[in-house]
Amino acid sequence: EIVLTQSPGTLSLSPGERATLSCRASQNINNNYLAWYQQKPGQAPRFLIYDASRRATGIPDRFSGSGSGTDFTLTISRLEPEDFAVYYCQQYSISSLSFGGGTKLEIK
Amino acid sequence: EVQLVESGGGLVQPGGSLRLSCAASGFTFSDPWMHWVRQAPGKGLVWVSRINGDGSVTHYADSVKGRFTISRDNAKNTLYLQMNSLKGEDTAVYYCAGRGSGKIDSWGQGTLVTVSS
Fold it and tell me: How far apart are CA A99 and CA A92, in angstroms?
């Protein structure tokens, strides 16, 4: 099983600022098979990034993903009010998929 | 437009069984992998199970292996999750999700399963 650890648990920032969210894996993620999702209260998750750095259809270019091996990052270049939510990373490198525990991005 | 609509959730006693269904539309249902993902109240996302397009390959999280069974009926465009020997820790919103073997680009709105006496 691959365990994903996300940090920080909570990130407090203001609109217009840059957000950097981290996802660390307990073992190497082959082929960079890592995705990111956004979830707002009472809603289903929204698909943002796949293969560590590819944006899903319709996702604004202020969202970007990077990293390889065991360390991955989601960056939001300039926060918009609608970006405040919980973000999850997920690996699909092995047959048993797994999610990280999430990072809550809140308004400062 | 892709739509995934779950049903079948509810209150069940510990040790009981429940079958969830997910009606899919807006895409060729028989092609892609499909998943179930759950979320306990106030907690994070947990992957539960996945099934390939023709139903011949399935995978499960260790926490549900031997108790849950994923299946699909491509003629009815429907995904299922049979849940047996339910425990309190299975209480969660269950999401039907899919269209990739690993990455998940589509999600339903979820159905709540509560396991309690």
Answer: 9
| B112 in contact with A, Cβ within 8 Å | no
State the pLDDT at residue B101: 82
| B62:A1 CB<8 A | yes
Q: What is the DSSP string of A33-83?
A: -EEEEEE-TTS--EEEEETTTEEPTT--TTEEEEEETTEEEEEESS--GGG
Q: Token pair of A1, please?
A: 């099983």
Specify the pLDDT at position B100. 83
Residues of A in contact with B45 (CB under 8 A): 37, 39, 45, 88, 90, 99, 102
CA–CA separation, A62 and B99 (whole Å): 25
The conformational region for residue A80 under phi > 0 = left, psi -120 to 50 = alpha, else beta, is beta
